[in-house]
Write a structure and sequence with these properties.
Pfam families: Aa_trans. It is found in: Late endosome membrane; Lysosome membrane. It contains 21 helices and no strands. By secondary structure, it is an all-alpha fold. The protein has a single domain, classed as Hydantoin permease (Orthogonal Bundle), CATH 1.10.4160.
């Protein structure tokens, strides 16, 4: 391909760069996203102008055979001031991926069976990790050809796949954020409810740690009339949460949210101590113990959310001191997450001393309100959820307002109205259907289909075609993976909901 053909190809592949105004828009968008990258890092989501298309060479600047995320400029390989190292990156990705999915994992493994469940955890982890390398590859392609730092996955989709695909990516990202807020609200309601019960019931003797949550506590007294997990406590949260999410920039919570790693580590240690205390109860003669269960799509849907970090992976690694190690560190984080899920999910299921059918979709609900270690875990988790929720609300309105108005800062009235609508949605689910297992698996299958099994693969196909590296084998493999994502999504509506 000669220079003229390269220029024409660049113009066709980057039509949005033909005017100065559009180049300025991209630069401004990257500046806005860079300013808000701390929020992505906290929960786990550069302003140079792009060159003209005549300065872009698709093949001379980009080498598809390079390692993912590696740049030939030696200055990019040296640690940069204010950047984060591999350990911080790995821990940030690890804690971000787990989150609320850790609480659901024992229930999800019970839905799949012990043997099949553990295998699926590592298989889904590998399947979810692979697309992140393709996202890094696509970002490298744009940065090396357009000279524009990319910190937003939706920008990549818009530049390579077109604005219509970027709209789909935005809608699914917004769905993911509002779904996360719903799950967080349900969990905060449950944690607050059980903490209140601990304070109220602590003076009464408890027959044991493991209880059937449908039987106790006795909710006939006056206290439980006004302290109800579904009918009152979720509404009490409005007075605690609504004021803080109306703060225009919740930068204070980005510092507190880093405390989440303490909560995650404590819950993992808590489960390990319970496993060691209980021992394993895995008699195949018991009808409720299963090595394989036909409801395994509940686990694959949950894992699609449990390993979902693809929409903010670029923002969370944008400050990596050595970009050539992004893929390696991401792989380590995915492996750590899979091991954690296997320990908490598989270990808890195998050691649970009562009927496996009693495992709740929030494993902390299987412990008595008077269990001290469970009380500490609930307090830590409530604090973590309370500090992260404002960031979720902020990211939701930031993406929505930017899509509608082209800017993040809008009239405060819009902020209040949007927050009220979000809180109202959370209250509806918390009061009528607080089943986080079903919510996570269905939401995870949607996000997984779009962000894990489809968009990154389509990006790589387009990039490979533009750089002359087409492969029929790659096409066949990608079609198969997209089919897996679609089958995972459809399966969520075949297995029954839990009522």
């Amino acid at each position: 391909m000669d220079e003229g053909e390269e220029i024409e190809s660049a113009n066709e592949s980057a039509p949005l760069l033909r005017s100065t105004d559009q180049r300025n828009w991209i630069g401004q968008r990257n500046t806005d996203l860079r300013e808000n990258s701390a929020e992505w890092e906290a929960i786990g989501a550069s302003g140079a102008l792009a060159p003209s298309a005549s300065q872009v060479s698709l093949e001379s600047d980009y080498d598809g055979d390079d390692l993912i995320g590696r740049f030939d400029d030696p200055s990019r390989k040296a640690p940069r001031s204010g950047s984060q190292g591999s350990l911080v990156t790995i821990l940030s990705l690890w804690t971000t991926m787990m989150g609320s999915s850790l609480l659901v994992m024992p229930w999800a493994v019970a839905e799949a069976g012990l043997a099949l469940g553990v295998v699926l955890i590592f298989v889904m982890g590998g399947l979810a990790f692979f697309p992140t390398t393709l996202i890094y590859k696509a970002a490298h392609y744009l940065e090396s050809t357009l000279k524009v730092p990319v910190v937003e996955f939706q920008d990549i989709c818009s530049r390579i796949l077109g604005p219509k695909v970027a709209v789909v990516a935005l809608l699914v990202s917004l769905l993911n954020l509002i779904g996360a807020m719903v799950v967080y609200w349900i969990l905060m309601s449950t944690m607050l409810y059980q903490i209140g019960c601990f304070i109220y019931e602590n003076k009464y003797p408890a027959p044991g740690n493991i209880t059937d949550p449908s039987v106790i506590p006795d909710e006939t007294g006056l206290f439980f009339k006004y302290w109800n997990e579904m009918l009152t406590v979720p509404f009490y949260l409005v007075f605690l949460v609504l004021p803080v999410i109306c703060i225009k920039k919740p930068t204070f919570f980005t510092k507190l949210s880093s405390f989440g790693i303490v909560s995650i580590i404590f819950m993992v240690i808590f489960v390990i101590t319970k496993i060691m205390t209980w021992g394993f109860h895995v008699k195949e003669t018991n009808l409720d113990f299963k090595l394989v269960n036909i409801h395994f799509p509940s686990l694959t849907g949950t894992l699609s959310m449990g390993f979902f970090i693809h929409n903010c992976i670029l923002g969370m690694t944008v400050h990596h001191s050595r970009p050539q190690y992004k893929a390696r560190d991401t792989g380590i984080a995915f492996l750590m997450t899979a091991i954690s899920y296997a320990i908490v999910g598989g270990g808890y299921y195998a050691a649970f001393p009562n009927s496996k059918d009693l495992i709740a979709d929030n494993f902390l609900k299987n412990f008595s309100n008077r269990e001290v270690l469970a009380f500490v875990a609930r307090c830590l988790l409530l604090f973590q959820l309370y500090t992260v929720f404002p960031l979720l609300a902020y990211l939701f309105r930031m993406q929505l307002f930017y899509a509608i108005f082209g800017k993040v800062e809008v009239s405060y009235h819009f902020v209040v109205i949007l927050n009220a609508l979000c809180v109202g949605t959370c209250l509806i689910f918390a009061a009528l259907y607080p089943r986080i297992g079903d919510i996570l698996r269905i939401l995870g299958s949607i996000c997984g289909l779009v962000y894990v099994f489809t968009l990154p693969l389509l990006l790589d196909l387009v990039v490979s075609a533009r750089t002359g590296r087409k492969s029929h084998l790659r096409n066949a493999v990608y079609v198969f993976l997209i089919g897996l994502g679609l089958a995972n999504f459809i399966a969520q509506f075949i297995i029954p909901l839990h009522v």
